[in-house]
């Protein structure tokens, strides 16, 4: 991406906004700040409190980093962003957007904070979107810097990353062989010919490559992202997002309703998956079968699921107990809610790491790079990372290869193949199919995102959720909505915790080791998602009324679970809902009259689009399979309706949302697709 240029006025305006979110406190604010902290159970030194009170975005020097982040968004969005900054620097523009004739950068800190909060609670979508954009940028960047003084303030040892888990006596790393990547010279030497090209290396692409290579076919795996061996993975939040995630951050929907996190490295989503390995529930399989896809209720699918479980080492052995999951379990049992241990892909080995969403440096997590791609390599497959496939080439409705840009060469080359398996993920696969000339109306439609909503609680004792396993328990209350642990490191936590003003947010972050985060995950059914045309991942998502109600019902249960577990303070991400705080002389009980009234207010408030902080880590269904081109993008075999020997093998195949972590389901389905591709009569 080319550098983004801001003129001096735009830079000053942006910095004034950043300083509103991370503001130094006035002497009066500091008195209140210290008073509230004394009432909490946090054991903080005077040095920590004083430093936190005085820190600003300016003192942290985050402006250049924020500008760098903006280079990852589309040119249209960059232009719109710069126009907003220019408007805010003029008297008429400032009046239009803030109600004050004074340019934003000339207003005092208190007034700027009030304006930011007014945008958050505005009835106008445009202002809510502005708040979301500016707050996420400032808070995420401020708190995810490895050497930031904020880490000393909040007692987070960022400098040593995940080294704490290496000190456990049962720490048993697995050293995996480094996969060889083709060099630029090898790729450009040409001509290259393979029996199969697999575009993508995640849950679908990794499995497909292994199956095809084992069948004796010559296979090339092309990955848009960079390959990192476990020894090169970064435990630091700041660098890991840039390395491991598409666009180096989250991908925001065009209408601002939800943010998607999508893996963009060799191994795809399996490289950043939270270890959770679950099979689809019976009612989902039956739902898919009712569309004519009998495979999902067949012994063949059962066998494929078992094959996946065995290869990735899915197990409930040595799933460790932490203070966070003990609180979660206690709250569920107090209320009679079901809670069970999840399966994780660790081969039954103890796994203390809380950084696997940035790649598993211990090698214990069985991602595709550590399993299926190793199998493919053993059977002769080749690998080409940092390469973008621009289109699948066809001749008389048959796939004959791909056109791609290798590394930074900016030169398009052709790689011939008699089969092409597209597994770029549900946000990118539709764009590649469209760029290749396919026009089926279902391509890009029916996007399912399994939206996540966070709930936060503060306890008197330390929870230290940033240490230990990621997700170990799940409460499945009604099948379509689940509660899980939601571990997030300081950068992500800061951007998710409700921001009302700078002082209150700093108080919350000082207590971050006392925070328990639980997430609500919903199997979306009446929401509308669409991947838009274009090469950049662009999509829209409109939350349906039924899915909104499922999220709110799950959020209510989430809050009750944490209260029943002993939480003293509860926060939602609803903009007009104040936190609930139990009085010093009150027990943490869900039958507390004030708490019951608060829950009713929470339910009534519902979900305000954009402001609710919805997140997706599971993108599905945008090229769904089916029995007719009228209702689906591909055949039940995974082959496209329009082009022979062109297959899809990723989460975009799923007919509807699966309702659980989809990794196992995608890998099982990829086994089926790859078998059909291998049996194709196509040969070079």
Any overview of this molecule?
This protein has 684 residues and is an alpha/beta fold. Among the domains are: 8-154, no CATH class; 448-616, no CATH class. Helix content is 38%, strand content 13%. A hairpin with a 6-residue loop joins strand 4 (251-252) and strand 5 (259-260). Helix 1 crosses helix 9 and helix 8 (109-120) packs across helix 9 (125-143). The model has no long low-confidence stretch (mean pLDDT 94). It holds the Pfam family NAD_binding_8. It comes from Choanephora cucurbitarum. Residues 538-670 form the Glucose-methanol-choline oxidoreductase C-terminal domain. Residues 241-451 form the Glucose-methanol-choline oxidoreductase N-terminal domain. Keywords: FAD, Flavoprotein, Membrane, Oxidoreductase, Transmembrane, Transmembrane helix.
Name the features:
transmembrane; 684 residues; 13% strand; five-stranded parallel sheet; flavin adenine dinucleotide binding; seven-stranded antiparallel sheet; globular; alpha/beta
List the helices and strands and how they pair.
Blueprint: H1 8-21, H2 27-39, H3 46-54, H4 57-60, H5 63-70, H6 75-88, H7 91-98, H8 109-120, H9 125-143, H10 149-154, H11 163-166, H12 184-189, E1 192-194, E2 196-199, H13 203-214, E3 219-222, H14 237-244, E4 251-252, E5 259-260, H15 268-272, H16 282-289, H17 299-312, E6 314-315, H18 323-335, E7 340-341, E8 344-345, H19 372-378, E9 382-384, E10 387-394, E11 399-406, E12 412-417, E13 420-422, H20 429-435, E14 452-458, E15 473-476, E16 481-485, H21 490-496, H22 502-510, E17 515-522, E18 528-531, E19 539-542, H23 545-564, E20 569-572, E21 580-581, H24 593-605, E22 615-616, E23 646-648, H25 663-679
């Amino acid at each position: 991406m080319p550098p983004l240029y801001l003129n001096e006025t735009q830079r000053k305006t942006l910095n004034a906004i950043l300083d509103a979110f991370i503001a130094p406190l006035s002497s009066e604010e500091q008195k209140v700040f210290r008073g509230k902290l004394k009432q909490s159970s946090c054991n903080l030194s005077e040095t920590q409190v004083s430093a936190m009170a005085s820190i600003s975005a300016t003192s942290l020097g985050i402006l250049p980093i924020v500008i760098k982040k903006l280079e990852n968004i589309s040119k249209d969005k960059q232009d719109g962003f710069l126009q907003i900054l220019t408007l805010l620097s003029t008297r008429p523009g400032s009046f239009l957007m803030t109600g004050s004739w004074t340019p934003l950068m000339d207003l005092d800190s208190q007034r700027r904070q009030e304006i930011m909060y007014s945008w958050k609670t505005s009835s106008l979508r445009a202002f809510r979107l502005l708040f979301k954009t500016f707050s996420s940028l400032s808070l995420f960047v401020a708190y995810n810097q490895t050497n930031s003084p904020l880490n000393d303030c909040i007692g987070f040892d960022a400098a040593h990353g995940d080294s704490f888990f290496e000190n456990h006596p049962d720490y048993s790393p697995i050293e995996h062989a480094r996969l060889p990547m083709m060099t630029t010279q090898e790729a450009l030497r040409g001509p290259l010919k393979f029996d199969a090209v697999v575009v993508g290396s995640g849950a679908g692409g990794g499995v497909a490559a292994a199956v095809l290579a084992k069948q004796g076919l010559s296979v090339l795996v092309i990955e848009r992202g960079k390959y990192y061996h476990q020894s090169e993975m970064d435990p630091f939040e700041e660098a890991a997002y840039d390395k491991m995630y598409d666009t180096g951050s989250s991908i925001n929907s065009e209408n601002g309703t939800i943010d998607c996190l999508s893996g963009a490295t060799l191994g795809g989503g399996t490289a950043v998956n939270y270890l959770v390995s679950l099979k689809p529930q019976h009612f989902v399989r039956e739902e898919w079968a009712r569309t004519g896809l009998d495979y999902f209720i067949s012994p063949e699918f059962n066998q494929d699921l078992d094959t996946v479980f065995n290869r990735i080492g899915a197990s409930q052995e040595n799933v460790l107990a932490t203070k966070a999951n003990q609180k979660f379990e206690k709250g569920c049992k107090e209320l009679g809610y079901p809670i069970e241990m999840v399966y994780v892909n660790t081969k039954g080995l103890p796994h203390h790491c809380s950084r696997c969403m940035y790649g598993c440096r211990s090698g214990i997590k069985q991602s595709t790079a550590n399993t299926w791609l190793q199998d493919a390599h053993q059977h002769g497959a080749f690998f080409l990372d940092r390469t973008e496939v621009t289109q699948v080439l066809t001749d008389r409705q048959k796939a004959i290869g791909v056109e791609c840009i290798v590394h930074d060469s900016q030169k398009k080359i052709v790689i011939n193949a008699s089969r092409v398996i597209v597994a770029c993920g549900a946000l990118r696969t539709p764009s590649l199919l469209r760029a290749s000339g396919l026009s089926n109306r279902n391509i890009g439609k029916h996007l399912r995102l399994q939206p996540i909503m966070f709930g936060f609680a503060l306890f008197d004792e330390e929870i230290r959720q940033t240490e230990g396993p990621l997700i170990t328990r799940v409460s499945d209350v009604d099948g379509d909505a689940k509660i899980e642990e939601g571990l997030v490191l300081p950068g992500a936590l800061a951007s998710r915790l409700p921001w009302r003003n700078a002082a209150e947010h700093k108080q919350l972050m000082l207590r971050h080791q006392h925070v328990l985060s639980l997430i609500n995950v919903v199997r979306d059914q009446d929401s509308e998602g669409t991947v838009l045309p274009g090469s950049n991942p662009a999509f829209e998502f409109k939350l349906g009324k039924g899915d909104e109600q499922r999220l709110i019902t799950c959020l209510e249960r989430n809050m009750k679970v944490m209260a029943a577990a002993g939480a003293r303070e509860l926060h939602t991400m609803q903009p007009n809902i104040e936190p609930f705080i139990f009085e010093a002389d009150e027990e943490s009980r869900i039958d507390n009259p004030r708490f019951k009234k608060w829950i009713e207010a929470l339910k009534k408030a519902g979900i305000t689009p954009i402001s609710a902080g919805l997140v997706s880590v599971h993108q599905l269904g945008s090229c769904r399979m089916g029995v007719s081109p009228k209702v689906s993008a591909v055949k039940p075999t995974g082959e496209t309706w329009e082009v022979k020997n062109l297959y899809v093998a990723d989460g975009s195949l799923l007919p509807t949302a699966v309702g659980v972590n989809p990794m196992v389901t995608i890998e099982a389905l990829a086994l089926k697709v790859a078998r059909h591709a291998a049996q194709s009569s196509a040969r070079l």
